[in-house]
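Re: that chain you flagged

S.,

Sorry for the slow reply, it's been a week of failed gels. I finally had a moment to sit down with the sequence you sent. For the record, here it is as I used it:
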Amino acid sequence: MACKCGGYYYTLNAKASFDRDLAKTRKFLLRNVSVIRMFTSGFFRSKWRSIAGKRRILSMDAREKSRSTILESSKDKRVPIFVMMPVDIFTLDASGCPRIRKLKALTVSLKALKLAGVHGIGVEVWWGIVERFSPFDYDWSLYEELFKLISDSGLKLHVALSFHSNIHSTHGKGGVSLPLWILEIGDVNKDIYYRDQQGFSNNDYLTLGVDHVPLLSGRTALQCYEDFMLSFVNKFESFIGTVIEEISIGLGPSGELRYPAHPFGDGRWKFPGIGEFQCYDKYMMEDLKMAACREGKPQWGDKGPQNAGCYNSLPSGVPFFEEGKESFLSDYGRFFLEWYSGRLICHADAILAKAAKILKKYQENEQTSVMLVAKIGGIYWWYQTLSHPAELTAGYYNTALRDGYDPVVSVLSRHGAALHIPCLEMMDSETPPTYLCSPEGLLKQMQSVSKKRIVNLIGRNTTERLDKTGLWKIRSNCYNPQAEVVRSFTYFRMNDSIFRVENWNNFVPFVRMMSTDL
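Prediction finished late last night. Pasting the structure tokens below so you have them in one place:
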């Protein structure tokens, strides 16, 4: 016999067990409510790993052979929940060194989440903290302390190696910059960062134009990323595959594979602007010129599209994103977009190849298997137009006439990486109809191409939702019958509102339902 409770279904025995656990959690929270309320920051993020079976990093041949097994084995499985650490978990002490904020409050919060059934915690491992002061001077002490705290709480880890800054997105509150020695180089040469057509540079992430240029104290950007990954693996080798279950590799702004075409926090862009192309640093422009010469059209290499509007333009009236002789459908338009998106895909390919090679030895032992993860952006506004302009400026050559996510996911498949997809809580009906949004259409497309390319999925929310409707939508998308069940879900992120009674009473049943085999 089954009973219905607030939209969630349990057998009577399971419900009684759940009620006992929920009562225990409530008592725990009440005893520590004053400590938990110390977390009053705003935004939080996460990334995590699936308890639903360890996956090895497989070659394409092996993955092709096991296609039906992989897809079938994911059905009717639990979807472990990870919760991302607060965005301001670190602060600077009087000497300018990072430390963990409000350690007692964090300890209590971790115990509460464990009691609620949360599987693990997502932690951003910042390049700007570990290699902060000088090249090769890696200081892992902060993360040794934090990882031990999480492990001692009985929780697993999704680690996000973060090669970006979040200063602008946090409005300076608890933000982490790029390493200070990188910023010093950038003060002299701003072309190590992405630039827009006005010449404004964005120092949240190094331009992919310096991936192969030794400007960073004798190293290329790719060498810096590789050395950082090697140092991490050497330091936390004993945690990999046991406590650390997923390792996400930062590929761009916010850790996502994309260009910073929609910079929020510095006043240049606001939703639902189409954004701007980010290819005007001298290294990318040199590459564009070479590509144009190879095409036999050297004039195409002088600049990016000059009729593509500005950050806050809407598609209507912007010639490049409409149909016409000088639009994205023209010979020049196709050339530029193939180059622009292709450089981004090559960037991902190079970094993921290095990450997969570093992690390969851990895949030789089933007990140390770890999932390699790559994060993609959720550019869902103007998705229902012909040109998908906001996606084009972000580097996804995805239109109503072309699948731009297939070549991206193909790279992930080649390196055995899982795809971290956004928007699982979002509904088309809740978006402004004027802006032709479709988070559901975008999600469906990503699920379809991931199934085609045999790539595991990890889900995350884009906006904070703690109401039953939003949480139920997440669950529905995680168990979409037309797609592979996601391997895990990352809730963005831990903050004060999660522990409020009205939200906690929704969040805990959601976690329990996701963590139970169907």
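What I noticed first: Residues 1-18, 33-73 have pLDDT under 50 and may be disordered.

Talk soon,
D.
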